[in-house]
Specification:
mainly alpha, 0% strand, single chain, 401 residues, 76% helix, Serine Threonine Protein Phosphatase 5, Tetratricopeptide repeat
Amino acid sequence: MLWSMESSPQHIAVALLSALAPLAGACAETPPPAPAAPASAPAAAPTLFEAVPVVARAQANQGKFDEAAELVRFAIAKAEAQRDVGAQARLHAELGGVFMSRMVFRGDLVAEAPATFRRAQELARASGQRAALAGALDGEGRLLYWRKLQTGEGEWAPIVDLFERGLAERQALGDRRGMAESTFHIGLTEQFRNLNAQARTTFERSLALARETGDPILIAYPLRHLAYLTELAGDLKKSLAMHQECLRLREAGGHRTGTIHALIAVGDLKSKINPRDDGAVAALDRAKKLAEELKDAAGLRNSEGTLGQVYVRRRAPQQAIGHLERALALAEAADDRSSAAEFLASLGEAHAGLRQRDQAIAHLVRARTLAVALDRPEVSAAVDRVAREHQLDLPRSVEQR
């Protein structure tokens, strides 16, 4: 999921040159990016503390989270040695972002992430670095959001508050890129509270801001979620076209971890439009291979699960079950209850297709229980559909919850 905002590779070459430059010089606090200098004036080389975040984000795009964290920690040590509190604030926020990307894409819980975002906020307030404060507030919101989405734990109000506070700081700074990011995150909270009309408006605002930056990766995030809402509205072909554009943008931006999930969405939509479309399986196989290469646990989990769902739609339940069982095991290992609910519902349908009623009912009961706890009405609706189509009598206690 769901959302790390990465810089495009065209900026990386300049940053790498700076990172390889002598490191002994003092590094000034970094203001917001200035307008491009006239052609006749040479562009100033970025400082180490400007370069490191760009390189670290590029590494995270490639799934190299350990390398990215090591690089940011190196820069933090330099900032501490120079007593540059502003740079420390920005870099701690950046380190928290690396941890978030690792959790989202690899499924690893990083215990130090909460403390990193809190430290970034302390340093930002001490140094008056409003941009760093905005990033740290937004980062803490993403951390709480991720936990809420995965496990159902926590409340939405403090998550929304953190995103809105981050947005206010970015608006005060005129940071269009940051505004696009914060607005997108607010849209996520609306989408997963089933406020779809409100979420659409928020994602459209985020998309307009992202297009102003010209960053293909930033543009792809709200576009992806607008595609999902378009699917819910019933226009599958338009949704597929939007997901294909998201895939193109992520590939153009070098966002390999994001490419995995764009491929999964394309494969899923192709299958929903035409269950026999071989392009669906091809896209998902490609996603699975890339997830294995990058050790992306979420990508592997979702590619396996979606492959299983594709075979369910093809009425090939025997082929579906292996994929769904592997996906369910990965979801349970990561305590991803939301994905587990979806895979259990699909497993129930696969077993029902094989007339294995007891297994089907057991999976559907577990899916419904999780769906109710997580407020996932679409999963409950899927359970109802399978039970109705296969004339399965679910326990009354489950139906009444």
